[in-house]
Amino acid sequence: MGVIKDILRTMDYGPSPESSEHVGVWLEEHKAGFGHFINGVFTKPSDLFDVFNPARGERIARVSQGSPADIDAAVAAARKAQGKWAALSGFERSKHLYALARHVQKRERFLSVLETIDNGKPIRESRDIDIPLAARHFYHHAGWASLIDSEFPGTKPVGVCGQIIPWNFPLLMLAWKIAPALAAGNTVVLKPAEFTPLTALAFAAICVETGLPPGVVNIVTGDGATGAALVADASVNKIAFTGSTEVGRTIRKATAGSGKKLSLELGGKSPFIVFEDADLDSAVEGVVDAIWFNQGQVCCAGSRLLVAEGAADALYAKLRARMANLRVGDPLDKSTDVGAIVAPVQLERIRRLMRQGEEEGLEFFRADDSVPDRGCFYPPTLVTGVDPASVLAREEIFGPVLVATTFRTPDEAVALANNTRYGLAASVWTENVNRAFEVAARIKAGVVWINSTNMFDAAAGFGGYRESGFGREGGREGLSEYRIADELKSKPNSSRAPRLNASPGVSPARNLDEGPDRTAKLYIGGKQARPDSGYSYAVLDPAGREAGLAGLGNRKDIRNAVEAAAKASSWGAATAHNRAQVLYYVAENLAARQSEFAQRLSATTGASARAARAQVDASIRRAFVYAGYADKFDGAVHATRSRFVTIAMNEPWGVMGVICPDEAPLLAFVSLVMPAIAMGNCVVAVPSSSHPLSATDFYSVLETSDVPAGVVNIVTGEANVLAKTLAEHDGVDAVWYAGDTDGAARVEALSAGNLKATWASAATIDWAKTEGREFLRRATQVKNIWTPYGE
Ligand code: ADP
Questions:
Q1: What is the number of the ligand 1 atom nearest to the C-alpha of 230?
Q2: CA 200 to CA 119: how far, in whole Å?
């Protein structure tokens, strides 16, 4: 008896390796190297590079480096296949996706082992999380394939999608990209990351097995150069990218003006907030999941622990004890918690950042410094007392390193949480439900997990705020990235260039101090303001006569307007009912001055009295429509996992720049500004350069309609010049631009600075017909809040 007791006391985990035999055979079969998967067949391997098992430092495969010619061939195959794929009934597409789901599921063990060997992640994670979730994505989107036409009326597939994925969740990211694209009727060219291309190639074989039509899925392997070639390919209609913010920014610039749709899922430095009343034992398990899952190589890793001062010592003590139980080692061992870092260069990056932290005098805690001698390993590390300005608190480490700091009040917690350029995810721990939701609402992040962390599901959107990117993956919101509205694909308008001196409606600038001041001023912070330049410009009627003067706004005026808009942010927190009332009031006041506005339109644009009246009528109706929508553009509760309520909230961007076109100057202005403010944004609007006077007449409508100061700011002048300042401004969260091709391209390129969302069109839009939910969707971003229930 004594002997058994002794055994139980000293019992430790013995090795429990998963068999890698089948994967070994498969790799041996492909010893000569892997080709690309183009048009349903594998190409001859060429220009091979090595792929390593990071846990052993051994080469496991050789894979082809995709050239621009390979990308061309893959895009051509996708293009050829797209029409037919989109023309299949939803039911037929659905069957293909089900088949992919089933086959991924059937090969779960093989794919898990391959993923672990290629990436270094623990088998427990690839087996229990990555691969089952990948299958779940195909199942979920198989359903969408048959519902897409009825659920997304008035839209069509985007076309050929170029998809570039990182190495941290290779097959899962593939599923996140391919499943919705295919369900929505698109075809794809996917480039896996150079460190981890193998499960994508195994998936290509599954596509052959299930009889997916050739060209629907194409996979081209290679490094960043191959990715860049895909981004540059002129016939790709959309780029979906997941990876670093730096590369995301490069891609934003590279696609500017190309007409390509773009979604970016980028880096993060996500806060993990623990309040004093949190269940600390659960929070400790949450931390383990947040930062040591996948060795911390997770874009939404909870890498910044913010803990209430009163709970910090207790939490740190529990954490240190828990860290002593984490097992670092062979990823194929089923009892391993922390596996290998993906590649030596990533390990070196972690070490470099940690050296910088050390130079700052920070102290690291590690329960056990030892790691296997061979392979890329880094021990789980806790760094406490980290100043928010420290490099470790700011930079994404992408490794198993948790940096901790304390806070005193909930306000301070929120301020610290938002003190980052990123906004991907956040985790909030408190037993107080009111506080949990208050904090969740105030955090600027695309996903908030309450008393939980790293929850994902195909039915919920995932994606960032701010420099964590834009667009969502998963759920209904993710699917809409792969559809395009029918009516918005109209003819580009490259000829119209609303520039002073060149445009027929506008004459050279003149000094405001000359003669009596008849100038319509700017409208900033609820007040009429003289333009900083001191100049105005003459607005001409079609006969070339002066119809009035408008202020010539410059960058300084835009900056003042952005500041005023930022100050008015409580508009976003007003009830939707309140906002609706204000919008109704705007509509009513516009209606009260209908004939005055119609006369002005006739006089300045040369429109017939009837056409001018029709434009004013349409503007009034439109304001009513968005007043009506203000409290009806609901979010959703997604059907994700049991015992979770996943709330998808539509939140305003914050400050929006809105640059209006020359056509239909009043109606376009109302059509753009009203949905933006209905959703709670504050706007800096630049009206038509040629016909700004109906917008400047609008000042008095705003003033008499209880629109709070700063919610709508109007700066007249050269639209494309002002658009540039708005696109560059870091305080602007989103820009809508309607104008010419050069202007649209510039807005997209300049938005790369803070990665603001843009909606730029150079098309001639029929404003009489253009209204609806798409404007509201574009005026908001979705935040998914995951809330557990039960005890
Ligand atoms: P990470 O930091 O996660 O490695 P990267 O952004 O470097 O992220 O890589 C993510 C993906 O982007 C990989 O597939 C990589 O090959 C690809 N990539 C890298 N540079 C470029 C580029 N300039 N254009 C397109 N894709 C790129």
A1: 25
A2: 12
- The alpha carbon of 196 and the centre of ligand 1 are apart by a number of angstroms equal to 12
Residue 164 CB–ligand 1 contact under 6 Å = yes
Q: Which of 702, 648, 779 is CA-nearest to residue 524?
A: 702
State the pairing for strand pair 535-540/527-529.
unpaired
Residue 503 has pLDDT above 60, yes or no: no
Q: Ligand 1 center to residue 116 CA distance, Å?
A: 21
Q: Are 456 and 474 in contact (CB under 8 A)?
A: yes
Work out the burial of residue 693: count CB atoms within 10 Å of its CB; fewer than 13 is exposed, 13-18 middle, 19 or more buried: buried
User: Residues 171, 199: contact at Cβ < 8 Å?
Assistant: yes
> What average pLDDT is seen over the chain?
94
User: How many whole angstroms from 306 Cα to the centroid of ligand 1?
Assistant: 30
Could you give the angle at the alpha carbon of 741 between the alpha carbons of 740 and 742, nearest 5°? 95
Average pLDDT for residues 10-23, to the nearest whole number? 85
Residue 691 sits at φ, ψ, to 5 deg, of -130, 65
Residue 481 near ligand 1, beta carbon < 6 Å: no
Q: Are 368 and 337 in contact (CB under 8 A)?
A: no
Cα distance between residue 681 and residue 707, in whole Å: 12
Strand partners, 164: 191, 241
Residue 216 DSSP SS3: coil
Strand pairing report for 546-551 and 58-64 = unpaired
Q: Is 282 in the pocket of ligand 1 (CB under 6 A)?
A: no
Nearest partner of 398 among 118, 168, 117, 53, judged by Cα: 168
User: Which band of pLDDT confidence, cut at 50, 70 and 90, is reported for residue 37?
Assistant: very high
pLDDT single digits (tens) 719-776: 999 999 999 999 999 999 999 999 999 999 999 999 999 999 998 899 999 998 999 9
Q: What is the tens place of the pLDDT at every residue in 443-493?
A: 999 999 999 999 999 999 999 999 999 999 999 999 999 999 886 544 444
pTM over 0.85: yes
- Residues 375, 476: Cα–Cα separation, whole Å: 41
Look up residue 414 and give its amino acid: V
User: What is the reported pLDDT for 517?
Assistant: 55
* CA–CA gap between residue 779 and residue 651 (Å, rounded): 8
Q: What is the tens place of the pLDDT at every residue in 276-287? A: 999 999 999 999
CA distance 141 to 772: 26
CB-ligand 1 contact for 250 (6 Å cutoff): yes
d(CA 612, CA 614): 5
Residues 515-558: tens digit of each pLDDT: 555 678 999 999 999 999 989 999 998 888 988 999 999 999 99
Instruction: State the Cα–Cα distance between residues 20 and 238, nearest whole angstrom.
Output: 38
